[in-house]
């Protein structure tokens, strides 16, 4: 059972403007691999606000491949995987918008939202933002670096599985009343939680 955390950074306010993707693989209760790829957005329009968040500028990505080529490298990894993202609604809207931009079909996969999981599992936290969860768990990282965000999302998910005594990260939804989201060639379903 493959579980992969994913995080996107965008060049501007358009969801189809991914300029970086980070991936972190979870196997046997630990993060075993972390990758980051820079992406050249199709229109190369970077907003100052986005640059201020992640520090990626047009010159950093001008020689990088565009979205389809970057994601194709990982297609075999995604096949049959459970994906996870912190605030999955954002990351999966970036993925969908980018695929739509290039008129590509969606991969078939299931995904979880670690933000929704954290809200359910650690309701006493004042905030469930990734940097504050990392702080609570004693994890140091560079926030808004896609690879580091993905790795911390993965590490936090592993801790959540331990907290609810789930055998794997993919088993958490059954314990907490979450319905995983789905991407399919026919569209998508959001990740949701039953009302507590």
TrEMBL record:
A GO molecular-function descriptor: exonuclease activity
Classification via InterPro entries: Ribonucl_H, RNaseH-like_sf, RNaseH_sf
Pfam family, one: RNase_T
Keyword annotations from UniProtKB, A to Z: Exonuclease, Hydrolase, Nuclease
Protein's UniProt name: 3'-5' exonuclease
Domain Exonuclease per the UniProt entry, residue ranges: 2-166
Organism, as annotated: Rhizobium mesosinicum
């Amino acid at each position: 059972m493959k579980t992969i955390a994913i995080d996107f950074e965008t060049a501007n306010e358009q969801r189809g403007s991914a300029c970086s993707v980070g991936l972190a693989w979870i196997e046997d209760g630990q993060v075993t691999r972390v990758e980051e790829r820079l992406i050249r957005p199709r229109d190369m329009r970077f907003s100052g606000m986005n640059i201020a968040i992640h520090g990626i500028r047009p010159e950093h990505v001008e020689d990088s491949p565009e979205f389809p080529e970057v994601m194709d490298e990982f297609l075999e990894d995604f096949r049959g995987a459970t994906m996870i993202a912190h605030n999955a609604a954002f990351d999966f809207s970036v993925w969908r918008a980018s695929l739509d931009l290039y008129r590509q079909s969606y991969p078939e996969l299931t995904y979880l939202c670690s933000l929704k999981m954290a809200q359910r599992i650690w309701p006493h936290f004042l905030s469930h933002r990734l940097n504050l969860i990392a702080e609570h768990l004693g994890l140091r990282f560079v926030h808004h670096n896609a690879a580091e965000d993905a790795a911390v999302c993965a590490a936090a998910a592993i801790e959540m599985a331990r907290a609810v005594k789930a055998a794997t990260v993919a088993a958490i939804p059954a314990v907490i009343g979450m319905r995983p989201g789905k991407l399919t060639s026919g569209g998508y379903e959001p990740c949701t939680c039953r009302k507590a």
